[in-house]
Amino acid sequence: MRARYSVNAVGARVDVTDSASVAAGADTAVAQLGGVDIWVNNAGIFPSVSLLDMPDEVWEQVFAVNSRGVFLGAREAARRMSATGKGGVIVNIVSTAGFKATAPGLAAYVGSKHAVRGLTKELALEFAPLGIRVLGVAPTYVPTEGNIAATQTALEAAAAAGVDVTQLDVMQQSMIGRIGTPDDIARVALFAASDLSIIMTDSTLLADAGETI
Ligand SMILES: NC(=O)c1ccc[n+]([C@@H]2O[C@H](COP(=O)([O-])OP(=O)(O)OC[C@H]3O[C@@H](n4cnc5c(N)ncnc54)[C@H](O)[C@@H]3O)[C@@H](O)[C@H]2O)c1
């Protein structure tokens, strides 16, 4: 990636549920890249378990990664952005599951993503005086490593619950005539992170090919 884009890139292994790990990742950015200007909270998990069978630990782990992880990431990023006085941008990857129910088995996921959408607004409110904008990006279904496997499990959970959900329902019918790609979502995240969205904070941008119409 460094050579392809002629940029300096550094990798750091971070567990977003562990505040010390998140802080260490942010410190790596400061030490090796000179600071934090843009922070994207992207990590997420989406196990499919029906509500009747949902173990406490699964619920808690989904919220730990998807919601608490966003809080920890935003806090550590904002501490370092405010220290320089330059501000910055925080982008939270939400989901159309932050706007609606999706499929049986995804209650924890839907709850955690609604939480991120709300948190995005409050982060925007509290960080505005620091010159930090906070935006959400809410993708529709996009085939990624994790989501391809999760879709199959979601279909099985729906069938077990007696709900007739087809693969097409789970993947959502796209109004643009094709399924989205990770690059489609990255473009919206880039818009959110760049000065093109300079007037925006607190919004969660639907990158949903019309799914929530
Ligand atoms: N793919 C989709 O259709 C879709 C749709 C809407 C929203 N999203 C959101 O996009 C984001 C990325 O999802 P994806 O589809 O690329 O999934 P993915 O499973 O392919 O990637 C998720 C990544 O999160 C990482 N992760 C999980 N737990 C972590 C932890 N504790 N600490 C650090 N990293 C951790 C995983 O290692 C993995 O690399 C998620 O927030 C997801 O909810 C995806």
UniProtKB/TrEMBL annotation:
PANTHER family: DEHYDROGENASES, SHORT CHAIN, ESTRADIOL 17-BETA-DEHYDROGENASE 8-RELATED. Keywords: Oxidoreductase. GO terms for molecular function: oxidoreductase activity. The lineage of its organism: Bacteria, Bacillati, Actinomycetota, Actinomycetes, Streptosporangiales. InterPro entries: NAD(P)-bd_dom_sf (IPR036291), SDR_fam (IPR002347). It holds the Pfam family adh_short_C2. The keyword Oxidoreductase applies. This is Short-chain dehydrogenase. SUPFAM superfamilies: NAD(P)-binding Rossmann-fold domains. Gene3D superfamilies: NAD(P)-binding Rossmann-like Domain (3.40.50.720). It comes from the Bacteria. Belongs to the short-chain dehydrogenases/reductases (SDR) family. It comes from Acrocarpospora macrocephala.
